[in-house]
Write a structure and sequence with these properties.
Layout lengths: L1 H12 L6 H8 L6 H37 L1 H8 L1 H15 L2 E3 L1 H18 L1 E2 H12 L2 H10 L8 H13 L7 H13 L2 E2 L4 E2 L4 E2 L2 E2 H12 L5 H16 L3 H8 L4 H20 L4 H15 L23 H25 L4 E3 L4 H4 L2 H12 L7 E3 L1 H6 L5 H11 L25 E3 L13 H13 L4 E6 L2 E6 L2 H35 L5 H24 L17 E2 L15 H15 L3
Helix pairs in contact: 3-22, 3-23, 3-24, 4-23, 5-21, 7-16, 10-15, 11-14, 11-15, 22-23, 22-24
């Protein structure tokens, strides 16, 4: 026993517990009775079998290691697939550049100008812009403190007006108004073009993420073990790349639990909704309704007497600021209507086609749906009348500048409502270059040659994307690659299961020899466990979008899916029964009932 313990301690720590004289004395020990002989032989035989078991386990580990290396090149492409996807999207954007000669460039530029004049300006949005520019510098600054994008993006103040309409002069919502408010907010979480729920948006000053976090708190939801494992890996990568300070600045002063929950809450919600046969929208709505029983999470501007905001205080209390905004809108509406009545500005009715292009109509629909009011369809101020208008209004000046400027990405204005650009807007970048008879970059042109070289370098070798039933799937390029990947995946599972079986055997030997006989085996199990984590990470990473490049350029691709579940659930792998049975029997022959 002492000799074995000394050997294990030396292997584990490099230090021995016996002196050389002690070791020699024990080696020279002679049994005095038959029982001592049997006991010596039993321990000695068990230790020899332990060595053979260790060699067998090491052989299994080396096989597993080799199989893991065999699929490494495939896994590497999986892990960096988002890189391929992002840059191939960028390449598709380059391909959308229209090759033209100088005459075509002039014609296209003129057509776009004509289109912008034809589009004109949404009357409701014109009121918004005119109202904003008519504000005093102090009030304008206060509004931008509340919402830095308020100068050109109307959704924040529109949402506040909708909430004020629901309050209807009261300080709290009625039961019916709470239902409508919760429905409106929950609706905001769904991106109908991406066909997925998102938690990064907000309704007025209520972040969707805060509702999700409220749900998690009420349910006692905590980050999962795999979330902590991801953070550990991320910390390692961040430290390796020398980005620790930037990362800590990014997460601010949040605890690991808070940061992890926020970053994985969408996935947690999706899993919960699937398992409980409900939807994220329903979960968010029900959570908000419960929250509204306590109070409005964040007081709307119309009833808020506060001056505090996230970054700095406003000069005026929020309710006074809101009143000033409504006054400015009423004044802007009256002024523009007078100009229309005088004929200085002209309007046209909105057509079915126009309904695709003007975002303000979405609010009209919402108000009619949730507030039960009948709203007259907005009108469009014609582009010609705006362009010929003499007074120096800022929003009209900007319209004129936009008409005269070629905008290669004009379609971005309509991207949220018209992802396929059915409205016919010209939104292509133009390249005056040599082209072939099909209108594509000539092979000998610098642009054409560069495109081909970049595409050749970026093309994945082992995977491809397949569109089916409105979804995008990541599939293996060839059946042989799929076969190799699945074989090596199974080898990880089998190797891990066999090593777990040896671990159970060795834990019993630890008790018999009163020593850590499994220290090397535990290292091998840990390494194999990391192989499995790497396997899962590669799969998981392959389905991620790095930046969403291409949204609004007609290049939006839906999140990737896989038809087969190729992940490995490590915690569900049981010790291999056959390995355990075989080696248990062999050790029983030596130790009997001991």
């Amino acid at each position: 026993m002492l000799l074995i313990q000394n050997e294990e301690e030396k292997a584990r720590t490099g230090k021995e517990i016996l002196t050389e004289a002690d070791e020699q004395a024990l080696l020279n020990w002679q049994a005095k009775t038959n029982e001592e002989v049997r006991e010596w032989n039993r321990y000695n035989g068990g230790w020899k079998l332990n060595g053979r078991a260790g060699i067998e386990a090491e052989f299994i580990y080396m096989q597993t290691l080799a199989e893991n290396y065999r699929k490494n090149i495939i896994s590497t492409e999986l892990a960096i697939y988002p890189f391929y996807r992002e840059h191939l999207n960028a390449l598709q954007a380059l391909k959308k550049i229209k090759i033209v000669d100088i005459k075509e460039a002039i014609e296209i530029t003129n057509k776009q100008r004509e289109q912008k004049l034809k589009d004109g300006l949404d009357f409701d949005y014109a009121i918004y812009q005119f109202a904003f520019e008519s504000l005093s510098d102090e009030i304008r600054k206060d509004i931008l403190t509340l919402d830095p994008e308020a100068e050109y993006e109307s959704s924040y103040l529109d949402d506040e007006e909708t909430t004020a309409d629901l309050l209807n002069g009261k300080n709290e919502l009625t039961k019916e108004a709470k239902e409508k408010y919760a429905e409106l907010v929950a609706d905001r979480s769904y991106n109908k073009f991406a066909k997925e729920y998102q938690l990064h948006g907000s309704f007025a000053n209520l972040p969707i993420m805060d509702i999700a976090k409220k749900w998690a708190k009420d349910k006692g939801i905590k980050p999962r073990q795999k979330d902590y494992e991801r953070l550990k890996k991320m910390n390692g990568e961040v430290e390796k790349k020398g980005l620790k300070k930037e990362f800590e600045k990014d997460i601010k002063h949040k605890s690991d639990e808070e940061w992890l929950l926020e970053n994985n809450l969408k996935e947690i919600l999706e899993d919960y909704a699937r398992d409980n046969k409900t939807t994220i929208k329903k979960i968010l709505k029900e959570t908000l309704l419960k929250w509204l029983e306590e109070d409005l999470p964040y007081p709307p501007l119309v009833i808020s007497e506060d001056k505090k905001t996230y970054d700095e205080d406003t000069k005026l209390p929020h309710n006074e600021l809101f009143k000033e905004w409504l006054k400015a809108k009423d004044k802007a509406r009256t002024t523009l209507q007078k100009l229309i009545d005088k004929g200085e500005l002209k309007v046209k009715d909105i057509t079915e086609q126009d309904e695709v292009n003007y975002p303000s109509l979405k609010r009209e629909d919402l108000l009619k749906k949730y507030l039960g009011k009948q709203y007259t369809r907005n009108k469009i101020i014609t582009g010609e009348s705006l362009y010929n208008f003499k007074d120096d209004f800022k929003f009209i000046k900007e319209f004129k500048e936009r008409v005269d400027r070629y905008d290669a990405n004009a379609g971005l204005i309509y991207a949220d409502n018209d992802p396929e650009h059915k409205s016919g807007h010209l939104d292509q970048e133009l390249l005056i270059a040599e082209k072939d008879k099909d209108g594509k970059p000539a092979i000998v042109s610098i642009f054409g040659m560069s495109l081909r070289e970049i595409e050749r370098a970026l093309r994945p070798h082992y995977f491809k994307e397949v569109e089916k039933n409105g979804e995008t799937y990541l599939e293996f390029e060839r059946d042989i690659i799929k076969k190799v990947f699945k074989e090596t995946r199974q080898s990880l599972i089998d190797g891990y299961a066999k090593l777990l079986a040896f671990q159970e055997i060795f834990r019993k030997l630890n008790k018999i020899y009163e020593a850590e006989t499994d220290h090397l085996l535990n290292q091998r199990i840990q390494s194999t466990s990391e192989f499995i984590d790497q396997h899962n990470f590669s799969l998981e990473n392959a389905l991620k979008d790095l930046t969403g490049f291409g949204i609004g350029f007609g290049l939006y691709k839906k999140p990737l899916k896989m038809k087969e579940n190729l992940f490995i659930k490590r915690d569900k792998i049981a010790p291999d029964a056959e390995t355990k049975r075989e080696w248990t029997e062999r050790f029983k022959e030596i130790f009997n009932d001991f």
